[in-house]
Amino acid sequence: MAVAALTIPGVTALKVGPPVSQKGARGYEFALTVEFEDLQAFREYIPHPHHRLVAEYISNFSEGTPLSYQIDTSREARL
């Protein structure tokens, strides 16, 4: 199913996997990350039919609300 998301224009990477440790995972059993060429590609990804398929697939077996947020990698984070 995740392969469908890779066919969406502007998607440059997709990774899925479990946490290395459940400590700090807040009960989440896996994460899915998607990287895009740019902000416009992200905006076009949201309504894309393949994204809707992946989102529906995940919602069929997940409990609760998925955590979703975006980060701007074009700006350097100072930690």
Automatic annotation (TrEMBL):
Q: Which Gene3D superfamilies match?
A: 3.30.70.100
One family name in Pfam for this protein = Dabb
- Residue ranges annotated for the Stress-response A/B barrel domain, each copy included: 1-79
What domain of life does the UniProt record list for this protein's source?
A: Eukaryota
The name this protein carries in UniProt is: Stress-response A/B barrel domain-containing protein
